[in-house]
Specification:
Length: about 90
Amino acid sequence: MSCLPTFYIEKHYSYVSEHLFGLCCSFENYAQYIINDSTLVESVIIDIGSNDGTGLNFFKTAAYKILGIDPAVEIVQQANKRALRLYVSFLS
């Protein structure tokens, strides 16, 4: 019997954040809000469920340290090829 919750997400799926223009704009606006109104200069920005790292990329561009966690193996591998720091894991 599995202990995983019923909302478990498959490790192999094709949804990629960077292909959704509205979502990218929201991520960019959110990142700018945090960057402009924050004292997190020396902090690490962590994104749980980071998908392809689209949201984290805006923080990386602003020279923040970043860390992403997502269960989708292929998507994380693609993000890491773009020099984003993502790990394959499922948090429950």
